[in-house]
Design a protein that fits this description.
Elements (H helix, E strand, L loop, with lengths): L4 H17 L4 H14 L9 H16 L6 H23 L4 H12 L12 H10 L4 E2 L1 H10 L2 E5 L5 H15 L4 E6 L10 H6 L7 E4 L14 H9 L2 E5 H8 L7 E6 L3 H7 L6 E5 L5
């Protein structure tokens, strides 16, 4: 999905949100906003929003003198998510359809997004998601394809969310034990992205092969993949992509059957799907071969 005019104002707003969240002083905040404003003429509508963000966020980090902008907030999100995993897992295990319930659990985790315009309450979101139908529901197609697949790639999104993803990975492994599962993470933190360290600490390696995508954007950019990630992606029978950044990066270009699992959080993505902000989707996108 390519950059839209609304994305430009969104990325600029994200720069301000970083400063507000980190309680940066006025002078430094102005330096950040001035720097991002100078970058706006270089934004290209031929790029995806994550490709643009990949240039903006390192510049913000440079001005603020930090390597991982949201490090402390990511740790807090992980702690909060961890406190909820027990009850969520219990609900999935007691469900009459464990795959569908695990997909819902994974989407509930997708609310953890420090770049999104809308604030969130994880407790409320988890409760709401389990009672809300998918606005786009291709889960039956996913179920059928999993029954025939040999290799699955799940593309992670945010820190904290990855704990909910682990529930989905566990259920896929239990229900489809012949399927080889890979879980892709970011090459480095950009916003609040899940990284290799986060996935390893969560024990995801117990249920899937953890793959460092090598990507330095908040989305699975096929042009920036590590050799390991490219090989796994190209040999996968199907892909489950988490979150809007991965959707924005893949939807127009994925050469694999890809299911997008996420909550819609912005007008541009909502318009591309003909849906509303707040909708949850399990959507099989076009295979661009």
């Amino acid at each position: 999905m390519k950059l839209e005019p609304e994305c430009v104002t969104c990325i600029f707003s994200q720069a301000l949100r970083v400063c507000e969240t980190l309680r940066v002083d006025k002078e430094t905040t102005k330096k950040v906003l001035d720097a991002v404003a100078l970058m706006v003429p270089e934004f290209s509508f031929s790029q995806t929003p994550p490709q643009v963000a990949a240039r903006v966020y390192p510049r913000i980090a440079e001005i603020l003198g930090v390597e991982d902008i949201y490090r402390d907030y990511k740790a807090e999100a992980v702690r909060h998510a961890a406190a909820m995993i027990g009850p969520v897992k219990k609900r999935v295990l007691e469900s009459g359809d464990r795959l569908h319930a695990a997909l819902k659990a994974s989407v509930a985790g997708n609310v953890i997004d420090l770049a999104a315009t809308h604030s969130f309450s994880l407790d409320e979101e988890v409760a709401r998601v389990f009672e809300t139908p998918f606005a786009v529901d291709d889960s039956e197609v996913l179920r059928q394809m999993l029954a025939e697949a040999k290799t699955l790639l799940v593309i992670g999104d945010n820190a904290g969310e990855h704990l909910f993803d682990k529930i989905l990975l566990e259920q896929i492994r239990a229900l489809y034990p012949e399927v080889r599962i890979g879980y892709a993470v970011r090459g480095r933190p950009i916003i609040n992205d899940v990284t290799l360290k986060d996935a390893e600490e969560a024990g995801i390696g117990e249920v899937a092969q953890i793959i460092d995508s090598g990507v330095d954007t908040p989305g699975f950019d096929l042009d920036r993949l590590s050799d390991e990630a490219r090989n796994y992606y190209e040999n996968a029978d199907l892909v489950i992509s988490k979150g809007m950044g991965n959707y924005e990066s893949l939807n127009d270009v994925s050469i694999k059957p890809t299911f997008y699992l996420m909550k819609v959080k912005c007008n541009v993505v909502a318009a591309s799907l003909n849906r509303e902000i707040g909708d949850i989707i399990c959507y099989k996108g076009a295979c661009n071969v």
